[in-house]
Fold this sequence. Notes:
By secondary structure, this protein is an alpha+beta fold. The chain has 3 domains: 9-44, no CATH class; 48-119, no CATH class; 120-171, Arc Repressor Mutant, subunit A. The protein contains 7 helices and 6 strands; from the N terminus they run ββαααββββαααα. The protein has helices spanning 24-28, 37-44, 48-55, 93-119, 127-139, 144-151, 155-162, and strands at residues 9-12, 19-22, 56-59, 65-67, 78-80, 90-92. The strands form 3 sheets. A two-stranded antiparallel ribbon has the order 1-2. A two-stranded antiparallel ribbon has the order 3-4. A hairpin with a 6-residue loop joins strand 1 and strand 2. Helix 3 crosses helix 4 (93-119) and helix 6 (144-151) packs across helix 7 (155-162). The N and C termini lie far apart (100 Å). Bound molecules: zinc ion (ZN).
Amino acid sequence: MPKGYPSKVERTCLVCGKSFLTIPAAVQRGGGKYCSRACYHKSQAIPLETHFRKGVGQTTENGCVLWAGIKDAKGRGIIYSSTHRRGKRVFSAHRVAWELAKGAITQLENIADMVIEDRSPNRKLTPAEVRSIRRRYAEGGVSQQQLADEYGVNQTTVSTIVLRKRYRLVN
Ligand SMILES: [Zn+2]
């Protein structure tokens, strides 16, 4: 090997993105991907959710999901995770189930909110109601939103009524 020939090659760690030097032989073996053992272990980590799915067993007749994974001394389902999340390695299966369900529930709530917003209640108002809305808003002490809720219409509708853009013939 000639003098000054680089015996090491520079690589970029696939986990942390840092540059590091390794021997060409390691790269030829398919290695040299991670700068340290810690980064190697991180690359091998399996998400908690995957661990959880593996532990989910059969569902009983009354809808209970049996835990087929590891249990602690008291018979509660536990999950050993290699992700070191929050510095922990052992997780309660119940807790993980709850966290996963909470994520799903939040999504459902967001969808429900969207559906409710889209419903846009906007019923037809009688001339008496239109007059009443204008009078009460002019008197003050009540917001357009409060009137909208009370009369079952949008705040925008109340606004256009007050500005006499709608129901112009009602006076
Ligand atoms: Zn690294």
